[in-house]
Amino acid sequence: MRVWLVHVGEPLPIDSGNERQLRMSLFARMLADRGHDVVWWTSTFDHTHKRQRAQVDSEIRLEGTLTLRLLYARSYSVNISLDRLVNHYQIARAFERLAAHPAEPAPDVIFATMPTVELAAAAARFGSRRNIPVVVDVRDLHPDIYLSLVPPAARPMARLALTPLYRELRTSVTLATGLIAIAPSFLDWALRHAGRKVTNRDAVFPLAYPELPASDEALSAAAVDMEASGVRTDRRIIWYVGTYNRWIDLGTPILAARILAERQRDDVQFVFSGSGDFEPEWRRLAGSLPNVVFTGWVDIPRIVYMRSIAWAGLAPYRPGFLTVGNKLFEYMAGGLPVLLSIGGDARRVIEEHRCGLPYEGGDPASLVKAIDEMRSDGIRDEMASNSLQAYRDHYAAEKVYGDMAEFVLDFAARNGDARN
Q1: Centroid of chain to Cα 28
Q2: What is the dihedral of CA 111, 36, 33, 136, to 10 degrees?
Q3: CA distance 101 to 147
Q4: Within this chain, do residues 221 and 333 fall inside the same structural domain, yes or no?
Q5: N- or C-end of the chain: fewer Cβ atoms within 10 A?
Q6: Same domain flag for 330 and 284
Q7: Nearest-10 Cα torsion for 370, 260, 330, 336
């Protein structure tokens, strides 16, 4: 079958060889490995590292049957900005223009993600006009997430300003043949906007994580690099890995580290691996604390190494973060218990599998308390075992995305039967 994937924002297979690949990349490779003709419509702009991959619309054919169609749009340096909204608009218009080109072979099914609502709506309109099934994958509650950034008193005006995005949201979910979501509450949210009840056209497929390959040589080099960065294997390492953006709160863990340092507790070390807009602020806040280390951005061997020595994984989301996030499953894949700052679907995951402890976002004493609770009576080791077992049973990429592939391809099969 010919499958179109429509999604922006993730690392691509053409990016750094040691860049971890996420949901769409894993799904694309799985479909291609099964012999399907896969075209991934995405962006020239690398959202993670804020750089252009190309200066014009481009096509890149990868090994096998996977093709990347890079749609050119302007750059942006700040995630919440007018430039980013313009970028999303330009990508959607570029998709509409190029997808409709007479020389472009039509797909059997389209799998589009939301966000962005503009691109998902463009894919849904395209499929609707041509009787091509479109499955929309709901990963974030856009544009609701923008409302959470403004004071409650200003939200009615903000909601009015976001009217075009809500219109695109409704287009996405009403024209979609089926809906997928990363969590039950996300599917309920999408169905409310679609104005319908759940059917067999809808399903939940959680975020999942792959096995990460790393040679012994690469792991040895990673160990040397991490030690040079100040990582101490004789400490209980509370590890965060990811982007330093506005939805992440490392300020609270840093203040928790200060509490422990003032108590002369030298058994815990906070290690932060990543980069982003808030790095200078958080480095200043940490100052010369002896139990805080910033390692910079890490590649796959360093991720594998850090998972092997960390004591717990840190998921320090700010209040108002409206999604589950990859971090939970990244830590679980490494057998790490999770320290989590938010409720909702994410908290239900760690409570259901007994693989972590919550703390109150913005309250460093609450995080210290959770760390102390995890230290007692073998709780950490039990949670670590539960974490790895939950990953293997429910969140391994091969299983989750294999089932998702069957679900999506079935729309194409049913549509073909209806035409014949």
Answers
A1: 16
A2: 10
A3: 37
A4: yes
A5: C
A6: yes
A7: -60
Q: Which residue in the block uniquely carries the two structure tokens 């691996």?
A: 273
- 298 and 368 fall within a common domain: yes
**Which helix (H) or strand (E) element contains residue 374?**
helix 364-375
Domain that holds residue 121: 2-208+397-419
Spatial distance between the Cα atoms of 335 and 381, rounded to a whole number of angstroms? 9
Same domain? For 406 and 381 the reply is: no
My answer on whether 376 and 408 are in the same domain is: no
Residue 36 one-letter amino acid: H
Q: What is the pLDDT along the chain (420 residues), one digit of tens a residue?
A: 999 999 999 989 998 765 678 899 999 999 999 999 999 999 999 988 889 999 999 999 998 899 999 999 999 987 778 899 999 999 999 999 999 998 899 999 999 999 999 999 999 999 999 999 999 999 989 898 888 778 888 888 988 999 999 999 999 999 999 999 999 999 999 999 999 999 999 999 999 998 888 999 999 999 999 999 999 999 999 999 998 988 899 999 999 999 999 999 999 999 999 998 899 999 999 999 999 999 999 999 999 999 999 999 999 998 877 678 788 999 999 999 999 999 889 999 999 999 999 999 999 999 999 999 999 888 999 999 999 999 999 999 999 999 999 999 999 988 766 554
CA distance 408 to 415: 11
> Regarding beta strands 58-61 and 66-71, do their DSSP bridges make them parallel or antiparallel, or are they unpaired?
antiparallel
- Cα separation, 267 vs 348, in Å, equals 29
Q: What is the per-residue burial (b if ≥16 Cβ within 10 Å, else e) of 387-397?
A: bbebbeebbbb
Do 406 and 298 lie in one domain? The reply is no
**Which class for 180: exposed (0-12), middle (13-18), buried (19 or more C-beta within 10 A)?**
buried
Q: Is the peptide bond before 116 cis (omega within 30 degrees of 0)?
A: yes
Residue 284 sits in the same domain as residue 356: yes
